[in-house]
Amino acid sequence: MKKVFIKRHHPGHSWFFSNEVEKPAEDIAPGEIVDIFKKNRYLGRGFYNPHSLIRVRRYSREPEDFDGEFVARVISRALKYRRQFMNENSFRLVHSEVDGLPGTIIDKYEENFVIQIHCFGVDRRKEIIVNELVKYNPGFIYEKDDLYLRSLEGLKSESRLLYGKKEKSLIITQDGLQFYVDIERGQKTGFFFDLRGARRWVKNNARGRILDLFCYTGSFSIYAAGGGAASVLGIDASKFACELARRNARLNHFDNIEFRRADVFEFLRLHHESYDFIVLDPPSFTKSKSKKADALRGYKEINFQAMKRLKNNGILVTTCCSYHIDEEDFYGMLKKAAIDARVNLRMLARIMQSPDHPVDLYLPESFYLKGFCLLKI
Question: What is the DSSP annotation of 121-136?
Fold first, then answer.
């Protein structure tokens, strides 16, 4: 086994960056497994990629092989953990490094699996993961790429059926509500399981006329209607998302929801109606630290516009899924937006990712979703 020596690193972190790794004494191929040392101290075993900023991704602190036995233990442990918190069949099964599979996402849709791999070493061994998932008798296993993350590792686009026969209409159940999921055309793997807690909060506190911005396929809107909202208007720029959202409303027999295709920024500039409840769940405005200032300006503008459209005693649920903007940044941005909008807001609750997207204290990158539920007073 070839060795890699670390000059410095963040204790406990499973990533070793290019400027933390000494030049190896011998050539190491992309994706090759290496033993990791700091001087004479053994740090574990991981995947090496000379073309990535993350030079080594550790998968174990012990000198164990990345084989079927190892992957089976990881998946079994991940499933056991989620069964403590999930009482349904659709959730994130494996959350990358936090669960012990570097750069690997496995989402469980009823009895099916969708995987994303953005680690060169794991990608070269994906057959091991597929073989272990097959033992759970899935209907299908589908690989859905994340082109941006794969490109950082020097990997090409991969979206394809790996096992079984994919259903034309996949329906999942969340908290007694049903949703169509389009794995191929949908964002990420098709559905955002990480917002489970936020959706439940919306359902429990829904009131009056609700505006759901960046509604995607309508999950917040459906939960709001299920919580007794008088009416819901969902806005999204994607024709595909709005069409699927309408199907989801019909699937759950809600006739008080309207979905409208529009750019959210433009919609807010042109429409000045007031609402009792606004959900603001935008996509990430930045994937790099260098664009953080621009992203914060975008978040401030969209939150400012939403605050201006809140009725007195109205509620704003606002989220941010960019790791590069932490909770303190987001809080500060909201305070500035509230000052400019001349509104007084009271915090009712914090939002973070649901338990099937666990956060590793040693891996701050795993804590990416944050948000607040705010009351206008």
Answer: HHHTTHHHHHHHHHTT
